[in-house]
Write a structure and sequence with these properties.
single chain; alpha+beta; Rossmann fold; 9-stranded mixed β-sheet; 4-stranded antiparallel β-sheet; 13 helices; 39 strands
Length: about 700
Amino acid sequence: MTSHISLARIGAVVSAFALTTFGAASVTAAQSAPGTEAFTARDMVKLERISDAHVSPDGSLIVYDQRSVDFAANASHHALWLVEAKPGATPHRLAASDPDATHPRWSADGKALYFLSNRSGSAQVWRTDVSGATAVQVTKLPLDVAEFRLAPDMKTLVVALAVRPDCPDLACTVAAAKKPADQKASGVVYDHLFVRHWDSWADGTRNHLFALALTTSGEVDGTPRDLMPGFDGDSPGKPFGGDADFVISPDGATLVFSARLAGRTEPWSTNFDLYSTSLRAPGPLTNLTAANLAEDIAPSFSPDGGKLAWLAMKRPTFEADRLGIMVRDLKSGDTREVDANFDRSAEKIAWDADGKGLLLTTEDVGQVRLFHLDLASGATKALTDQGHVADFDRAGKTLVIAKDDLQHPDDLYLRDAKGLWTQLTFVNADTLKPLAFSAAEQFTFQGWNGETVHGYVVKPKDFQAGKRYPTAFLIHGGPQGSFGNSWSYRWNPQTYASRGYAVVMIDFHGSTGYGQAFTDAISGHWGDRPLEDLQKGWAAAQVRYPFIDADRACALGASYGGFMIYWIAGNWSKPWKCLVDHDGVFDNRMMGYSTEELWFSEWENGHATPWADPAAYERFNPITHVADWDKPMLVIHSAKDYRIPLEQGLAAFTALQRKGIESRFLTFPDENHWVLKPQNSVIWHDTVEGWLAKWIGTEPH
C-alpha cells in the first residue's frame, strides 16, 4: 500500500479548532507566567503524582494518595495527603503515612482512615484517625492484602488475598508456596493456560475475597472467611483489577463481585459475571448476570440498596465493545440499560445521593469528560469540557475530580453549587513553574469513508512563525485507544516538543471516544483503514500547519502503534527519515500463537484462530513486507512483555540487521509492555531522542 494522498485535495476538506475557552462546565488550571526551560524526561519522571482521592462522608475533607520518586534509588514512595473541601485550602501530609501508605478509605462515620502499608513486612490494612499522627495495624494475615473494602455498617472488612483455591485455609497456601530445602530442580509443569499473563507466570493462586469481622473499635475479630470457596477465578481480576471489582451493600449484608470462571477457556473468554453472596453467613454464590456471555463489571449499589448498577458489554470475546450502564431493581428483578442512546463507553460510575442519577466518565472526542446521567429520562449532561478526568469521587454535595491535559499533570478540582470548578491542589507547581509547555491544537479532516477524523498538533518549544520544524508523528496503541488531550508519563508529546520537534497525533478509525461504530471499524482492518487515516491526517496537518517540515519527519508507535510502524516500513515508508517501534506486532500469525489474551488476537483477525483462518492473519502481516523495508529503525522491546512477546522485536531487529538497514535494539529485562521504572524511562527517552536527532535533527529551518 503505497498510495499518495494529494495535499490539495486534503486542504479542501481540512478544518481545525483551537482549545477553547470554557463555559460553566469548564475545568481550567491556574494560570501563571510561562516558563522558558525545556521540559525533559528527567523532569517528567520526578513529578509527584496524585491518585485515589476520596471525599469524607460529610463532604468536608478529601484524602488522596501522592506518589514521590527517589530517582537515585530508582524507586517511588506513597503517602496520604488530606485537604479541606474548600477553595484555598492547604493540603498536608499525614505523618501516619511513614514509611509508605496507599489505598486510603474512610470509615462510614468519617472518624477513621484505613489504608494499606507494607511497613510490617507485608501489605496489611492499617488505621489512623483524621489527625493522621499515628497508625494501628488492623490485619495481621500471613498473605499480602491486595485490596480491601469496609462495610457501611463498619462490622465487616473485606480483603483480597492471592490463595490456592483448593486450600482449606491460609496456612495451606503459605505452605504450598514454600520450596523444600532439598529441592534442586526448577521445572514447573502446566496443564492449561494462562501459563503467564501480562508480566507474571502463573503460580497456582487466585485472587479471592475474604470477610473479617470488626469490633466496635475497628479491630479484627476472628479468622478470615473465604467468600469464594473453591472458585476457579479471580476477584479482583488480574492483572489490573481493584476494589471497583467488588462492592458491599449499604446494609452491610451482601457482597457483589465481578469475576470470570477460568477453567480452560480463560485466555479466550471475556465473560466476567457478577456474583452475590452473604457477608453474614456462609452461603452459595448467585450469578446475577448469567444471561450475558460478555463482560459485566464495576457493580455499584444505589444509596438505599434497592438497585444495582454495573457496566456491561454485549459481544463476547470483544474487549473494546461499548460498556453500557445496566440498572437492576433488586426487588422486582427488572433490568434495563439506562444509557442506551448515549454512544459512549462508560469508564467509571457512581450514584447520586438521591439515587435518581449517576455520574460517569467517558472518552469523548479527544477528551475524557465527567457526565451526569438522569435515570428517568436517560439524558446526559457534560459537567466538564476540555481535558482528561482521570478519576472522581462524591459525598453529599461535594464532588471532586482528578484532571489533567496535554500541558498539565493531574491535580484535584472541586465543583461548587453553580457548577464551576476550582483547582484544589497544586502538587507540582514549584517544579513546573520554570518549565515551558507547548501549545496544542485539535484539528479535523476527512479520513476513511469520508468520515471526520480528529488529531492533535503540538507546537515545538520556542516556536517562531515562518520557520519549519522537524516532526515526530506519534501513533497510539490499543488499537482501541486515543492520543487525546491528556497527560502521559510514557508517551508525552511535551518531551518531543521541548527538544524542538512539532508533534502530530491522529485518532484513526479504531480510536475510542468517537462512537462505537468508529471504534469497530478497525477490527479486521488493521492495515488499511487506519493507514488511510494516518496518510490523510499527515497530509492535512501539513496543509493546516506549514511549520511542519515534512522532509524531516520520523514516525513512532507502541503496541498497535508499533504494529503500524512495522506495517508502514513496508507499505508507506516514503515520508519518513526514520522509524521507532516499541513492543510492536511484527509477525501477526505468531502473535496469534504466543500472546496470552487470545480473545484479542482472535477478535481482531476475523474471530478466528490462526489455523482456522490463516489468511485473516496474513492479510495485514508486517513480516510479509520486510523485503520493502529501507528506513532506519529503532526497535524497543522488553523481556517481561508477555502481551507481545520479546521475540517479535528481536525478529524485526534481526531482519533489519540482515538487510543492512541502520538499526538499533533497546531492551529492558525488568520491564513489561510498558517502561515504568524512573531510570529506565530516562534511558528510553534518551535513546529515542538520540535516534530522532541523528536522522532529522533538532533545529528549525
